[in-house]
Prior knowledge:
Layout: H1 3-12, E1 14-18, H2 26-35, E2 40-44, H3 50-60, E3 65-69, H4 74-83, E4 88-90, H5 95-103, E5 108-110, H6 115-123, E6 128-131, H7 139-147, E7 154-157, H8 166-170, E8 178-180, H9 186-190, H10 194-212
Helix pairs in contact: 2-10, 4-5
Amino acid sequence: xxxxxxxxxxxxxxxxxxxxxxxxxxxxxxxxxxxxxxxxxxxxxxxxxxxxxxxxxxxxxxxxxxxxxxxxxxxxxxxxxxxxxxxxxxxxxxxxxxxxxxxxxxxxxxxxxxxxxxxxxxxxxxxxxxxxxxxxxxxxxxxxxxxxxxxxxxxxxxxxxxxxxxxxxxxxxxxxxxxxxxxxxxxxxxxxxxxxxxxxxxxxxxxxxxxxxxxxx
Length: 217
């Protein structure tokens, strides 16, 4: 597995979680995110355009780290790999997806919100886990209380992360990065509001810089 990708998650701090209706928006979206300091695109497999968008960014925007989100089974995982995804994200602890990612030497962010799922992740060789949906499952307090027995774990919470709470999340030692969609919502992408996406991405990356400063690695 390429651990440098996990390092890039930490350095960037915020992972844009994207829902796309049209493949044609893939490259301008990637450009807008990169211009705003967030050169990462987690494209969720919720629409027919997702795999094509991943393929375009992987082939034509090599400086943008592109991955597949909402990967719920091994078939989807392999399709994402074939499209050029550089990392996979699944909402739960789905062993077949984890094993597919590991077979292809890709980072995998598997969801864990209970101690049992965290233990399962550790036994599968994972040390960075997705925590979803963070907002409705107790947020930072839940992460701290449930993760205390697992000092080796770090988390990437998504769901309920907003500009007004992202700094609080990033200040916690257990948080590797956060995922969010506020800087590039589905309607904004579909309406071609790429300047706005760049502006909101710049604001997010500035928050990361202020919180982590020279501690970024």
